[in-house]
Amino acid sequence: MAFRFALLGAGRIGKVHARAITSDPRAKLVAVADAIADAAQAIAAQVGCAVRSIEEIETSTDVDAVIICTPTNTHADLIERFAKAGKAIFCEKPIDLDVTRVKACLKVVESVSGKLMVGFNRRFDPHFGAVRAAIDDGRIGEVEMVTITSRDPGPPPQEYIKVSGGIFRDMTIHDFDMARFLLGEEIDSVMASAAVLVDPAIGTAGDYDSASVILTTASGRQCVISNSRRASYGYDQRIEVHGSKGAVSAENQRPVSIEIANADGYTRPPLHDFFMTRYTSAYAAEISAFIDAVEKGTEPHPGGKDGLAALVLAEAALKSVREGRAVKVSEIAG
Amino acid sequence: MAFRFALLGAGRIGKVHARAITSDPRAKLVAVADAIADAAQAIAAQVGCAVRSIEEIETSTDVDAVIICTPTNTHADLIERFAKAGKAIFCEKPIDLDVTRVKACLKVVESVSGKLMVGFNRRFDPHFGAVRAAIDDGRIGEVEMVTITSRDPGPPPQEYIKVSGGIFRDMTIHDFDMARFLLGEEIDSVMASAAVLVDPAIGTAGDYDSASVILTTASGRQCVISNSRRASYGYDQRIEVHGSKGAVSAENQRPVSIEIANADGYTRPPLHDFFMTRYTSAYAAEISAFIDAVEKGTEPHPGGKDGLAALVLAEAALKSVREGRAVKVSEIAG
Amino acid sequence: MAFRFALLGAGRIGKVHARAITSDPRAKLVAVADAIADAAQAIAAQVGCAVRSIEEIETSTDVDAVIICTPTNTHADLIERFAKAGKAIFCEKPIDLDVTRVKACLKVVESVSGKLMVGFNRRFDPHFGAVRAAIDDGRIGEVEMVTITSRDPGPPPQEYIKVSGGIFRDMTIHDFDMARFLLGEEIDSVMASAAVLVDPAIGTAGDYDSASVILTTASGRQCVISNSRRASYGYDQRIEVHGSKGAVSAENQRPVSIEIANADGYTRPPLHDFFMTRYTSAYAAEISAFIDAVEKGTEPHPGGKDGLAALVLAEAALKSVREGRAVKVSEIAG
Amino acid sequence: MAFRFALLGAGRIGKVHARAITSDPRAKLVAVADAIADAAQAIAAQVGCAVRSIEEIETSTDVDAVIICTPTNTHADLIERFAKAGKAIFCEKPIDLDVTRVKACLKVVESVSGKLMVGFNRRFDPHFGAVRAAIDDGRIGEVEMVTITSRDPGPPPQEYIKVSGGIFRDMTIHDFDMARFLLGEEIDSVMASAAVLVDPAIGTAGDYDSASVILTTASGRQCVISNSRRASYGYDQRIEVHGSKGAVSAENQRPVSIEIANADGYTRPPLHDFFMTRYTSAYAAEISAFIDAVEKGTEPHPGGKDGLAALVLAEAALKSVREGRAVKVSEIAG
């Protein structure tokens, strides 16, 4: 019998998840909700599912799980509502922009033994997954240094910048999760530097567009993150891990990998446009992992505490930029 | 309204096409037929379609097109039957192992204005397609030399070798089609050398497992093909085209592209296992192109004459090996 | 007429420079001095030059320039002596481990209008030079983010660690110079994290073996440096620069670039062993640039103030690790 | 004591060898001869050696060996003269354009127990040498298929074309030697196709500029060669060897290996200009191997019979093009 989803939010990332659902033969998208009727209708028409209100979905008996892709400021409320409604929940990151609100939300989920998975899609990328597998298999010995390069092809619209919570909570948060996924030890302190180099309007909105971060664990393992909101050559997503016996890295991916040689040199095409094409298989694997966990009754990973941990690192990074010092995770996490 | 397929033959390549059909939202697999009931049943259960006999499919009014994946010796008969039945036809290569039989078959198709596409999937690979596009865009000037490296991960079973028509008709035939796709000019003569280096049993069956071919066009353009039935490092599929202004190449693909560095050096994983995973997107694009052509009423490409042309080259190559000389295509094609 | 060198110090780096001198047809090594007579004799025999004492070289009329490769604690004194003696001076980094001593030394050089070049060989590597040229040619627009990965194949002997001044002054100092070479703007502040992950004995000696640094310029440009004293896969030396219009990178170099493919994957050999082979052509180009500057009467680059600037960054990094905060360059440089 | 060379011929390849000699500390260039006095003088001035006539060199007691870089039609005569004069001989390929003349020459050398090495520089390239070492170490099992891609950056001057003996004797001859170096078995038959695609003037001169060759050994091992007289992207020199357990390849080399990424893609610089820079280290290693052999009294490799064998293959290839058939090596070699 099919695993039945309802999709809350029919925007860009909602479409990505709708497509991901169609790739798992166990999954079925039953309903979609969106404040913008046309957006919901578009997905419904394409997939062949119903348009319902959030209230209707809350009480739908033919829905096993919801995928929350609505604006960030609604995430925590929806998680609480649907946890109480007994639905399994897959929520896009972040749970909320405020650490205290996230903690309160997770308590509610826990109190009703809710199932919550948070959308850190990169863990499910086959290449990054293979990096982690190489570490787990002892191929590089003990992890010592992680380097994450993560650059968007271009900055988001100004309206989005304003509600995004800033580059650390919106963009670097994926890298913070990756660092936790790869370091093999919890992070102890955060140092960060950030600036406005891409677009002054981002600075006007109180945010940064270029950032560098050093994460350090208690034993001294280090992770360096380099972020930019703009890369002319495409969606730059690289990871490397240096260990006591060797190193493992995942290079960039491109949709077409030909090479043209002429008097100007040897040229390969640009990278993927953005996450929708770069992480197609990651989104599919992510949904499958969610279904696996719910069907087996195990805790979905990454879960609420992973969402919280990444948000804490984002807050620590912001504090580090503002105060020009290393910020202990314990200062934020309490 | 959906474009409705019936699948004839539920073996390895039949499964590949069944999966390809599910990737085009316009396409629907209505029925599957196979002499082995269990094989047909397995696909029917997975896709949710009917099991029917070939006779039933021939008269089915809910079938727009058939995909012929049965043994090679049935291809020509089935093409004729279904062309007469008014179904659009997608047939796996080769149409037949005998040039005369292929010609007769194509005459029947023509007489009833049938639509026939032949399964040269590699033309639809995004990387090889981009190679062709680079040529068409004038990026490398006039095509002069094509190099095709094509090696299977391992030899097929002995029973298959016996009915395959030999390495040139079974394996190199894809490379012959690629050469025609890329050279931009018809081939005039063929030189080939072949040997048994991989498995003596292949020689016992009267076939070769390692072959080198030079194709030359009337104006002197050359294509070199290197084939082996065994490559320990995976399914080796590379193309490069050298032209008057530059060159373009498509490198090998691998499912996971991490790199592990240690005292032994830098290691990337092996290539794809075989065509089922290497050409997943090519098979999907191939079916979409078939639907496009049939829906628009245009001639599907590659069509019957492409199937014939590749077979003629295979026969010329075999003759070249046996007689130790350059064989003119006109000697075979008549 | 030949440009005549005397070499002070016949150890590992002295040999590298002796070889570099032989590669410029203008240069001639006239004399070598070393406290260990055998070491001096070995180079003298190989090159066919004289063994002299430092005092003798100071008064030699057949010596145009000296190359100082003696232990670090003698550098500043020797620079002063030979500047006063009217010899052009090429000195291995660092000038001294103490910022105040360096400043005093540079004043002496200036007072006698001495010519001083400091041995930051990497600026002369053809690949890194091409990175800088690409920036200068506007190929990547404005520089925004620099990433430097620099890992030694293995830690130096304990005795060396003790007198080296620590990882930042001994090893990262090259990366600090590279950052200045590539950022196009002076560095304003330094954040660093460091730990002992490779060898506890290094910690016992009061040093670190693994370090991450963020350098930030006044306008917000950022450079991230990742250092380790041990890399099982060879001498890891990579640079990438991300700018407003694109990025440029220089990959690792290996002595032999074959690739072996088998069932385990595709393997290329390890990197160069260490700087002696990795930077052979850089050392040669460095000496040529020194001769060029002296013969033309221009200021050699990188000069004393570059040596000072890199040392200041090293000191700032160390202070940042110890105090857990961003350290302004002005705090150190005065 | 130094190993003393005289250089016969001060043209392009003569300069290459003059430079190679300076890279071996055992070697000394004593004299240079050339019909064009200025050419000889230029090298003499640069290296600091004497200009002598060929006759003078023949009787010079301070010359241990000659390097023959004169026009091809003088090679055989000079080899005979200097073999009789008791000098060790390094001769640029080919020994002569005529197989009979080569055989006669080798007999003379043998009759006086002369030492003769033939200039197949590519055997000494570190990358190609590592390919051979990987084979010898059993890394790829039994050799089955060799692929050689060899393209010059541009065609030679018309005057050179006329005296070169044609593309097979002048250019492919290096690839024939490489094939013999790598196949591990003598070649039994040759098939070739050739055309004029680059420059009609080459055709007017009776030569070809684009060629494809299949070499087959008695046991069926195959080597495919692809040649062009023009490659817009530089000097294209690649080798790959496919064996029973794996494959090994040597990729192209470039003087600078940076990569620039922007909206047009990822671009690396063109390859080396030509052999003078591509094979710098190969020429140096070649001279060292020659000195090694002469000093140890062993037979230099590759020697006269290797020069003959490659020439025989060239003649067989030409015959194959003209007669449209596989030509047995025994037809030419007698």
TrEMBL record, chains A, B, C, D:
Where is each GFO/IDH/MocA-like oxidoreductase domain found? Answer: 130-248
Q: Where do the Gfo/Idh/MocA-like oxidoreductase N-terminal domain residues begin and end?
A: 3-120
Highest taxon of source = Bacteria
What is a GO molecular function of this protein?
A: oxidoreductase activity
Q: Which UniProt keywords apply?
A: Oxidoreductase
What is an example of a Pfam family matching this protein?
GFO_IDH_MocA
Q: Which NCBIfam families match?
A: myo_inos_iolG
Q: Which family does it belong to?
A: Belongs to the Gfo/Idh/MocA family.
From the Swiss-Prot or TrEMBL record, give the protein name. Answer: Inositol 2-dehydrogenase
Organism (species): Metarhizobium album
- What gene codes for this chain? iolG
